[in-house]
Design brief:
Length: 177
């Protein structure tokens, strides 16, 4: 049986491949279409049609998913904000970068402390390293979870206005008009 001549088999395999790839893709870190494409290439490289195409296809999808998971674990994302390969605040970061990062943090904490009403408590909870959920924040502050969003929006607007007045406007580059 020639794989190119059997369009019915290709159609059946295509639907099965789409379903299998969609099921495996979320755990791999790749798109289902990329997974499908890798399996089609594997099938073309295989040569003659496998004896049990559906079983072969399932195994091939799982094998390609394992390869994608391994690749995702080894890859290191490129970050534009790194200075000499170090993040701000790292031991190896440039001293100027570390200083600016700490100054920004101090300015933010100072502005948060000067916010009116319940905003300082709310913003400290949102900025907490414990990464609290809305439900946990509402429980700590004793307010309803539904009112947390509007209060947060008002506090952020107030904080934005405070910081905008404190931070110098960027200089114009090139010709000024």
């Amino acid at each position: 049986m020639d794989l190119q001549k059997d369009s019915d088999l290709l159609n059946r395999l295509g639907r099965l491949l789409s379903a299998e790839a969609a099921a495996e893709a979320p755990g791999t870190g790749v798109d289902a279409a990329d997974l499908e494409q890798a399996v089609w290439v594997r099938l073309l490289e295989h040569g003659p049609a496998p004896a049990e195409p559906a079983r072969w296809l399932r195994r091939a999808v799982r094998a390609e998913a394992r390869v994608a998971r391994r690749r995702a674990r080894r890859e290191i994302p490129y970050r534009h904000h790194l200075v000499d390969g170090c993040r701000p605040g790292d031991a190896g970061a440039a001293p100027e970068e570390s200083l600016l990062h700490r100054e920004d943090g101090r300015a933010l904490r100072s502005a948060v402390a000067r916010l009116p009403g319940r905003c300082p408590e709310l913003m400290q909870a949102l900025l907490s390293p414990r990464d609290l959920t809305y439900r946990e924040i509402a429980g700590e502050l004793g307010i309803s979870q539904g009112s947390l969003g509007p209060v947060r929006s008002r506090c952020l607007g107030c904080l934005r206005r405070m910081l905008a007045s404190e931070v110098a406007a960027p200089r114009l580059r090139g010709r000024e008009r």
